[in-house]
Amino acid sequence: MLIRKMDLNLVIYNDGFNLDKSIEKLIQSCHKFDYKRIALAVQIVATGKDVKIPIPPTIKLRDNLKNIKLYTRLTVQVEDSNSLFHLSKNENLKHYDILAIEPMNEKILNYLNGGNFEFDILTFSSIDSSIVNMIKKANFSLPISKGIGIEINYSNCLSSSSQRRQSIAFGQMLVDKTRSKNIILSSGTSIATSIRSPRDVIYIGLLFGLEENQSKRSLYRNTEAVINHSELRRNINTSIIVADDLIENNNDDNNNESIYDELCAMDENLQTSKKSNKMKRPSSSIEPNQPMIEAISEAKKQKT
């Protein structure tokens, strides 16, 4: 199996798209560290029915960057299940390869952990006390069994010393709650200079309590699993849409069949009526309505 270095959270949108030069610098920095696959992330906040998803920009890579595979990622901060419903119905969602959800309270985290919504990555950018408390009570067994990635963003460790301590403690708690399963390590940054080499990221994983082989897996195999999960999710969604169309078309066919049967029955009644009228009044038989005859004839042609 070919193992590729990946960073699945390079932020290019947060209340507005970054400049093209900033995006190019992110990609160039990843290329310098030999990352083969990267996800350009759009971050939004979903509130009730107000779910506005921007269409991701088209990125044209220079020739020296052609060996990098780009993915589009949507990261959504969510507070209630109603937002998830409207998110799933948004037409612009189809423009994204990866769907990451950031729960903002315990209720929505439990909803997500209950398997009630299909997505690819469970992520946490905020590490305040309320988020820490909800992580302590959470049960991640179901999303782990479904192959959903549990993301730790290491860029928080590159800030102030107090932020670094909080980030490391949060990462250790998340690793403990998940038993090191499905953990993926991402940069979670929009700044090119904050991207670290795969070797450095593996060492950062050790600070979070991962063993060396687990830290390597979080950067390689687990990220690969997320890509596979996203492809499966999108294929299933496409299949459901196609199935719905087939059911709708089948219902139309059934309706046509019913109309045809009704027209045939009317035809028989008309023919019977015509014969009866000829027997009773041979000199002035009543002809059936011409438009009705034409409709019946057309229906029979379509049937054959």
Automatic annotation (TrEMBL):
In terms of Gene3D superfamilies, this protein maps to:
Metal-dependent hydrolases
**Database matches in Pfam families:** RNase_P_p30
- The protein depicted here goes by the name Ribonuclease P protein subunit p30-like
Show which residues constitute the signal peptide.
Answer: none
Cellular component, GO annotation:
nucleolar ribonuclease P complex
Subcellular location per the Swiss-Prot or TrEMBL entry: Nucleus
Keyword terms, alphabetized: tRNA processing
A single Gene Ontology molecular function, please?
Answer: RNA binding
Region of interest: Disordered:
272-304
Organism, as annotated: Dermatophagoides pteronyssinus
